[in-house]
Design a protein that fits this description.
The protein contains no helices and eight strands. By secondary structure, the chain is mostly beta strands. About 10% of the residues are buried.
Length: about 120
């Protein structure tokens, strides 16, 4: 059996073992894009009324030298939700926010899962 992916990338996780039977439609692996095209950011609870689709932001990668690129919000989640733990300022204090999808500037060299800063949120 030959499997094909709907996009270029690398296998990031295998969800079942060789020889294991699976039902049709059940995921067997996850694919990570080689180069991200979107970033998920979280607007703080005090900012949720200020964000909108098309709003200009800057993506900031703290590398040497730093990378900074102009971008914009392309989608906004429908509700406020718990942020991923890696984004909390204190591991003991959960934070909430509204997810936003931000387009990645084609010139930025990002790795899937990499943490970057967003100015303007």
């Amino acid at each position: 059996l030959v499997l094909t992916s709907p996009r270029a990338g690398v296998v990031s996780q295998i969800l079942c073992r060789p020889g294991e039977a699976v039902m049709a439609g059940v995921p067997i692996m996850t694919i990570a894009e080689t180069y991200p095209t979107e970033i998920i950011a979280f607007a703080g609870e005090n900012q949720v009324s200020q964000i909108q689709v098309g709003m200009k932001v800057q993506i900031v990668k703290k590398s040497d030298p730093p990378q900074i690129a102009e971008s914009e919000i392309i989608r906004i989640g429908p509700n406020v939700q718990l942020k991923p733990e890696i984004l909390w300022r204190s591991q003991n204090l959960p934070e909430r926010g509204r997810p936003c999808m931000i387009a990645v500037h084609p010139g930025m060299k990002l790795v899937p899962g990499e943490k970057v800063g967003i100015r303007g949120l």
